[in-house]
Design a protein that fits this description.
alpha/beta, Rossmann fold, 7-stranded mixed beta sheet, 5-stranded parallel beta sheet, 13 helices, 45% helix, globular
Length: 372
């Protein structure tokens, strides 16, 4: 009897092992709730759309992807715990995420230590990929984005700019640093600097100080939640200076909260749903069909691109083995992404154009595209 029981459990074990090998497990961590939920939800929806398309087409290497998604709740400390679980318990072969640079900086060392490729859709702080050779991103980085906005300010004749930075976000601090570096080295002057922390609601003291400096423009490299409130309060205080931001402004609640108070502002980003490009419009159509009543933003497009780049690299590698997969991702060149042609450089960062949008009548409008 004991031999029969042993035989039964051995067969059962082989069955479950075979079942487990039928899919390729890919992990995803995102801010699905909390302060950055707009980013996380959009990125996840784009990622999921890509995974569903890949699976509908037969998957990769004869197997379908199994996406295991975890919510980091927009909280520090969660990404490390989640990524450890995805690697040790779920046995994922790669990880997609995060949008926020601070969250990616927390998770990336764990992926690097375990030699699990990680692709961030939208973390723009340069330090993210500096963690190691298993860490990638499909977005441009802050030195480029900060320089783009500094050049744009100078092209508008704005020589006196004030700065309002979120000290709790690596993204904001980094973007401010590179803006200042280019702006001041090319004839511009930072007339005043003020700081705030994520989650703040009252910005009137900082804005009053900035107003007194009489800047031509105010650069606010923060996230959409705070940017919307800053825009409203700035106008209530009678500030006429032009407001500028980075891709962190692009969240679905920005204009809902700000109304027309951000009219005349400018922002750098990765993607615009009104781009007439057939690639973009096909994506927009597919996204709206999958998520009725919704329009994709740049986080959705970047999430989609991150999953597609992983699948293409896995197909080229011919395996899910970590070193080979890492090498294949690193070799990505001229990938026809939704956010443009994507080539990963020697530092595993995407070389691609940025888009500058303006805001008119409470809506985004294309201003110009800037090549790297």
């Amino acid at each position: 009897m004991s031999r029969l029981i042993f035989f039964f459990f051995a067969i059962l074990g082989l069955f479950f092992t075979a079942k487990a090998q039928e899919t390729i497990k890919v992990g995803e961590f995102a801010s699905l709730t909390g302060g950055n939920a707009s980013f996380g939800q959009a990125s996840h929806k784009g990622t999921l759309l890509a995974i569903e398309e890949i699976n509908a087409a037969g998957g990769v290497l004869g197997k379908k992807f199994e996406l295991i998604t975890e919510d980091d709740q927009s909280q520090a400390g969660q990404p490390a715990t989640i990524v450890q679980k995805l690697i040790a318990q779920d046995k994922v072969v790669a990880i997609l995420g995060e949008v926020a640079s601070s969250k990616s900086l927390e998770a990336a060392p764990i992926c690097q230590q375990n030699k699990i490729p990680m692709i961030s859709p939208a973390s723009t702080n340069p330090k993210v990929t500096e963690i190691g050779d298993y860490i990638f991103r499909v977005c441009f980085i802050d030195p480029f984005q900060g320089t783009v906005m500094a050049k744009f300010a100078l092209s508008k004749g704005w020589k006196r700019v004030a700065l309002l930075t979120d000290v709790k976000q690596d993204y904001s601090v980094g973007l401010a640093e590179f803006f200042v570096k280019y702006f001041t080295s090319h004839g511009g002057e930072i007339v005043k600097e003020q700081k705030f922390s994520s989650g703040d609601k009252d910005f009137k003291p900082q804005l009053t100080s900035l107003k007194a400096a009489q800047p031509d423009a105010i650069f606010i490299p923060g996230y959409y939640g705070e940017a919307a409130l800053i825009g409203k309060q700035a106008r209530l205080l009678g500030i006429k200076a032009t407001l500028m931001g980075g891709d962190g402004w692009i969240g679905d609640s920005l204009l809902k909260v700000a109304g027309k108070s951000l009219d005349g502002s400018y922002v750098s980003t990765h993607f615009f749903d009104q781009d007439p490009s057939p690639v973009v419009q096909t994506f927009v159509k597919k996204y709206r069909a999958r998520y009725p009543g919704e329009t994709p933003d740049d986080m959705a497009a970047l999430g989609y691109d991150s999953a597609m780049i992983l699948a293409a690299a896995m197909q080229r590698a011919g395996t899910t083995e970590s070193a080979a997969l890492r090498d294949a991702i690193a070799a990505t060149k001229n990938h026809a992404g939704i956010t443009g042609s994507i080539t990963l450089d020697e530092k595993r960062n995407a070389s691609k154009s940025a888009i500058i949008l303006t805001i008119e009548n409470g809506a985004f409008k294309f201003e110009q595209s800037v090549a790297p």
